[in-house]
Amino acid sequence: MKYMGVKFILLLFSLTAVVLVSGCTQYGKEPVTESAPVEGNVIEITSYGFSPDTLIINAGATVIYVNKDTLNHWPASDPHPGHNQYPETGGCIASKFDACRALSRNDTFSFKFNQTGTWTYHDHLNSKLTGTIVVQ
C-alpha cells in the first residue's frame, strides 16, 4: 500500500513538473514565421496604414504589399466597397487590383500595374487606411 502511495506522489510530481516547464517555455513567446526577403516596389501595411502611402512606378511594374501588422489587412482598389476604380476587371469583387482575401501577418499580395494613371486604394477591412499608386 505504501508503494502505491509513493508511486502516486511521484507521478503527480512528474506531471506538475512537465506542466510548469512547458508553461514557462511558451509564455510570452510570439510564433515565429519565416518569410523570404522582399525587394523592389514594396508597401508595408501596419496599424498606422500603408507605407509609403504614395508610390510612383512605371507601367508594368509590380507592387508587393506586405502585412507587418498583427491584424489582418486586405488591399483593394477604391472606392470601398466596390473596388472598381482600377480599370482591369476580373477580381473577386470588380477590379483585378484586389487581394481578394485578408492578409495575415507577413503575408504578401503582389499586383502588376499595367494601366497608367493615379490609382487610390484602401484596406477593405479598415477603409480609413488608404494609399495611392501613380503609374507613369
Question: What is the correct CATH architecture of the domain at 41-135?
Answer: Sandwich
Overall mean pLDDT stands at 82
Tally of DSSP β-strands: 8
For the record, what CATH class of the domain at 41-135 applies?
Mainly Beta
The quaternary organization reads as: single chain
Gyration radius, to the nearest Å? 24 Å
**How much helical structure, as a percent, in the residues?**
10-25%
Relevant CATH superfamily of the domain at 41-135: Cupredoxins -  blue copper proteins
By DSSP (H or I, 4+ residues per run), the number of helices equals: 1
Strand content: 25-35%
Class by alpha and beta content: alpha/beta
The name CATH uses for the topology of the domain at 41-135 is Immunoglobulin-like
Summarize the main sheet.
4 strands, mixed
**Unreliable runs, pLDDT <50, ≥5 residues?**
15-38
Summarize the structure.
This protein has 136 residues and is α/β, with parallel strands linked by helices. It is 18% helix and 34% strand.
Kindly describe this structure.
This protein is α/β, with parallel strands linked by helices and 136 residues long. It has a domain at 41-135: Cupredoxins -  blue copper proteins (Immunoglobulin-like, Sandwich). Helices cover 18% and strands 34% of the residues. The chain has one helix and eight strands. The protein has one helix at 2-26, and strands at residues 41-46, 49-51, 54-57, 61-67, 75-77, 108-113, 117-123, 126-135. The strands form two sheets. The chain has a four-stranded mixed β-sheet with strand order 2-1-4-6, with no helix packed on it. It is globular, with a radius of gyration of 24 Å. It starts with a helix and ends with a strand. The relative contact order is 0.19.
